[in-house]
Specification:
- The complex is a heterodimer.
- By secondary structure, chain A is of the alpha/beta class.
- Chain A is globular.
- A four-stranded mixed sheet of chain B has the order 2-1-3-4, covered by helices on one side.
- In chain B, strand 1, helix 3 and strand 2 form a beta-alpha-beta unit.
- In chain B, helix 3 packs across helix 6.
- The longest helix of chain B has 31 residues.
- The chains are: A alpha/beta, B mainly alpha.
- Chains A and B meet through helix 2 and helix 3 of A and helix 1 and helix 8 of B.
- The complex binds adenosine-5'-triphosphate and magnesium ion.
- Magnesium ion binds next to helix 1 of chain A.
């Protein structure tokens, strides 16, 4: 497989019992791209993401991530990935500093280096808080930005963010996407899943998933031209209708 | 240098110190269990009601009754109803036993240098009945000694428990039960909680190895469980007055071993249980009943059916009980405790390896 892709899948499939959560997914993601996974609840976004992170074993098909096969080299892949899971997953009962110390520890990043990076990232995401503040006392929008800071501690080339903006107000969502943009400008490859169709506009390229299948795979502009719709919301309704028939 | 294990340990210590529920399990639960079980099971009898029919009613007979009344164990009173109605009293549980002193008590005592009194005991609780019998013998002996009359003594000789204090037996048993239960509970919760919260997913997405998670999780709890061991030991010693003949370092070493077995069991449970709730249930049922029934705590292993005896070999408390009874009551050292010690080492190794093997770095 070509090393110039950051991610490439071939008929990647995940079956739970007799339910197919991800059905023959074929995608290619280039380095430096912001790649959107869009789709309604249960479309299979999280399942696909977990396979790419090495958290779930594919039932069939193939996926290469950062040059490694997810079936074989999940440990090598894990070093390359910064992951924000769909559920907020820092520790509420630890302070900001303690969370940072913990995640730098399990990625074996020297504490000093991690602290430097954390300070930079905190500035970038617009959090100006003492390290001693308890994570549990923060509003959700702050927590999600903090989770992103922790995911960046080991300076991964690939960021996988599963619904980072759900439950966050529109202003904060916008700010979050600005951060994602500047990370891409730094050369990171970023996968973002969301079920907000308007967020598709921020992606370089996106897929829309439904019932485990990839419906479309293109840039937002090409998609709008192709379907003659003004915005992604409209496009999505169009596509959803088409599938319902 | 591996920084992952210390990272997990440090985080775990912070959780422990901040989670009032863990602290409650660790501090309050053992105290409550020991005190409640302790008093409930304390077979050292107290407040045994004895009805006295004294048909002689002389200075000498009253002296005997006095001796009974003077012990903490017996409450003496004179029933209203005639002796023929004794069964009634038993049915109503108004009395546990009756002491009947015949009219010729003084006479035979002085003349023949021996006398008979009758003791009728409600044996619906055989354990209690035996206790009452033994205590009564002891009282009669005291009386004999004091009056210098009777040459006949009831001689009982009970090894390792000369005062018939059952606390000597149940405190080690409770230590064994509390430690295994709490240790298994703590680790099973520590992992299943992270699965439930979703934080485990965030850990698993890092390049960490199964044994690093497991070891990082277990180490802080060893310390915690040892603190518990000290706590129950102190309560046993000062509240229930159980002696501690042996060496403390030996006790500590074997207790650490036992705790590692229990913590590993908890880890294994957490790899099977799907939720925190299920993990807690499993941890409690897998430790409490076997430890009570099949470790020699309540029932002697030698008197069990062969099949059950075989099962007891898989109950860690069986070995630990043998060890701490040996240390606390007999002053055993390492040399005498090799065999049960080896059994525990084997169990710890098997459970730990199974837990690491079963712990999956992928999600289900
Ligand atoms: N471990 C599992 N076992 C069985 N079914 C599962 C499992 N995980 C996910 N599913 C099912 O697979 C389907 C896809 O789920 P997935 O979480 O990937 O969707 P999603 O697109 O991320 O949705 P959401 O927007 O709600 O996060 C759902 O119907 C879900 O119930
Ligand atoms: Mg999802």
């Amino acid at each position: 497989m070509n090393a110039e892709y950051m991610i490439r899948t071939e008929d990647l499939t995940k079956v739970f019992g007799n339910f197919t959560a991800v059905d023959k997914m074929n995608i290619e993601i280039m380095p430096g791209q912001i790649f959107g996974f869009l789709g309604a609840n249960g479309a299979g976004k999280t399942t696909a993401i977990r396979m790419l992170c090495g958290l779930l074993k594919p039932s069939s098909g193939k996926a290469m991530v950062a040059g490694y096969d997810v079936r074989v080299d999940s440990e090598a892949i894990k070093r390359k990935i910064g992951y924000m899971s769909q559920r907020f997953s820092l520790y509420d009962d630890l302070s900001i500093g303690e969370n940072i110390r913990f995640y730098s520890g399990i990625y074996q990043v020297p504490y000093k280096v991690a602290m430097e990076r954390a300070k930079d990232s905190l500035k970038m995401v617009g959090l100006d808080l003492s390290m001693k503040v308890m994570t549990g006392s923060l509003p959700l929008g702050f927590k999600q930005r903090l989770a992103l800071v922790c995911a960046l501690l080991h300076d991964p080339p690939l960021l996988i963010l599963d619904e980072p903006t759900s439950g966050v107000d529109p202003m904060a969502r916008r700010a979050f996407w600005n951060v994602i943009n500047s990370l891409a400008e730094q050369g990171k490859t970023i996968i973002v899943s969301t079920h907000f169709m308007d967020e598709a506009e921020y992606c370089h390229r996106l897929i829309i998933m439904r019932s485990g299948s990839v419906l479309v795979d293109d840039s937002p502009r090409a998609l709008k031209e192709k379907y003659g719709s003004r915005n992604m919301q409209e496009l999505f309704l169009l596509l959803a209708g088409a599938v319902n028939e | 240098m591996n920084r992952r294990i210390p990272a997990i340990m440090l985080k775990e210590v912070n959780h422990i110190l901040r989670d009032s529920r863990t602290l409650m399990i660790v501090i309050l639960m053992p105290i409550m269990q020991l005190v409640i079980f302790g008093y409930a099971m304390n077979m050292e009898i107290r407040g045994i009601r004895i009805g006295v029919y004294d048909y002689r009613d002389s200075a000498l007979s009253r002296e005997l009754v006095h001796k009974f009344a003077a012990t903490e164990s017996f409450q003496i009173s004179y029933p209203q109803k005639p002796i023929g109605e004794m069964n009634r009293y038993f049915y109503q549980r108004a009395f546990h036993a009756f002491l009947i002193i015949p009219a010729d008590f003084d006479h035979t005592m002085v003349r023949q240098n021996q006398a008979e009194v009758q003791l009728i005991i409600d044996a619906s609780d055989p354990n209690a009945a035996t206790m009452i019998q033994n205590y009564s013998f002891a009282v009669v002996n005291m009386f004999n000694d004091a009056e210098r009359l009777l040459p006949i003594r009831v001689k009982t000789n009970i090894l390792y428990n000369p005062d018939l204090k059952s606390a000597y037996f149940f405190v080690p048993g409770l230590i064994a039960m509390i430690l295994v239960m709490i240790s298994a509970l703590l680790t099973s919760i520590a992992i299943s909680k992270e699965k439930e919260l979703g934080t485990m997913e965030q850990i698993l997405v890092s390049p960490i190895k199964a044994h690093e998670i497991i070891i990082g999780k277990v180490l802080p709890y060893i310390l915690l469980a040892l603190i518990d061991a000290m706590l129950v030991l102190l309560i046993g010693k000062y509240l229930f007055k159980v002696p501690f003949v042996g060496s403390f370092p030996v006790f500590l070493a074997f207790t650490m071993l036992y705790v590692i077995v229990a913590l590993s069991l908890g880890l294994l449970i957490s790899t099977i249980a799907r939720s925190q709730q299920a993990a807690m249930m499993m941890a409690i049922t897998m430790t409490m009943l076997p430890t009570m029934m099949l470790s020699g705590f309540m029932f002697p292993i030698a008197s069990m059916p062969k099949a059950l005896q075989l099962i007891t070999r898989f109950v860690p408390a069986r070995y630990y009980l043998q060890i701490i009874r040996g240390i606390m009551l007999k002053g055993n050292g390492f040399a005498q405790l090799m065999q049960p010690g080896l059994a525990l080492i084997l169990m710890a190794a098997v459970l730990l390896i199974l837990a690491i093997k079963r712990f999956s770095l992928r999600l289900k």
